[in-house]
């Protein structure tokens, strides 16, 4: 099991089928108090003006203040919480690759990619003006665009490399020339 501050990675091997899970969350509870403080700090900053309003403007209605605090905390929780619980890649060597995205609501989105369409897996370094991150994608036969494997999450490189190696070791992936990847 590999982990980082935001994500944890686990791998299952059932016969020839490889299942790779990347979950949102920490692999241990060390420093959970600090993480809770970081998550609650926007809420505390949002509630501070309301508390000052309560003490400075005493003629305001307390019920309006409480309802606005409740509504504001609900909005902050929605903004902080990621809707994705985990993303999984299931490698079926003779058939293809199945991508699964599990949401916090319980909804599961599945997408199957047949082995005939896959040319090879690639690791990409993505640069934006504010950040740099790694991504794992598949080169697809007959398509100009790459297929991103982790569309919602951005796991670090140390989590992506074992998945990339497992995809490279699938024996039925061939290039357009007939050469094995």
Structure characterization notes:
- The protein is α+β, with helices and mostly antiparallel strands and 181 residues long.
- It has 2 domains: 2-29 and 84-168; 32-80.
- It has helices spanning 32-56, 62-80, 157-168, and strands at 2-3, 7-14, 17-24, 84-92, 96-103, 108-114, 118-127, 132-140, 147-148.
- Strands 1-2-3-4-5-6 form a 6-stranded antiparallel beta sheet, covered by helices on one side. The protein has a 3-stranded antiparallel beta sheet with strand order 7-8-9, with helices on one face.
- β2 and β3 form a beta hairpin.
- It is elongated and about 80 Å long.
- The model is unreliable at 27-34 (pLDDT under 50).
Quick tags:
181 residues; alpha+beta; PIGH-H_dom
N-to-C span: 27 Å
Strand order, sheet with most strands: 1-2-3-4-5-6
Percent in strands: 25-35%
How many structural domains can be distinguished in the coordinates?
2
The assigned structural class equals: alpha+beta
- Spans of at least 5 consecutive residues whose pLDDT stays below 50 are 27-34
For the CA atoms, what is the radius of gyration? Answer: 22 Å
Helical coverage, percent range: 25-40%
**Strand-and-helix sequence, N→C?**
EEEHHEEEEEEH
Could you give a short account of the major beta sheet?
6 strands, antiparallel
Mean pLDDT: 78
In one word, what is the shape?
Answer: elongated
Find the count of extended strands (DSSP E, 2+ residues).
9
Number of helices: 3
């Amino acid at each position: 099991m590999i982990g980082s501050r935001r994500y944890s990675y686990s791998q299952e091997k059932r016969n020839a089928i490889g299942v790779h899970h990347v979950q949102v969350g920490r692999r241990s509870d060390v420093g959970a108090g600090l993480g809770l403080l970081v998550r609650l700090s926007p809420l505390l900053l949002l509630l501070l003006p309301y508390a000052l309003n309560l003490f400075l403007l005493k003629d305001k209605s307390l019920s309006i203040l409480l309802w606005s605090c409740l509504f504001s905390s609900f909005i902050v929780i929605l903004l902080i919480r990621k809707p994705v619980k985990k993303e999984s890649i299931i490698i079926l060597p003779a058939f293809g690759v199945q991508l699964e995205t599990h949401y916090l609501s319980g909804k599961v989105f599945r997408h199957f990619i047949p082995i005939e369409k896959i040319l090879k897996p690639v690791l990409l370094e993505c640069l934006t003006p504010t950040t740099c991150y790694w991504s794992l994608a598949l080169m697809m036969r007959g398509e100009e665009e790459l297929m991103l494997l982790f569309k919602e999450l951005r796991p670090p490189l140390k989590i992506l490399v074992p998945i990339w190696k497992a995809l490279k070791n699938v024996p039925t992936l061939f290039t357009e020339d007939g050469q094995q990847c």
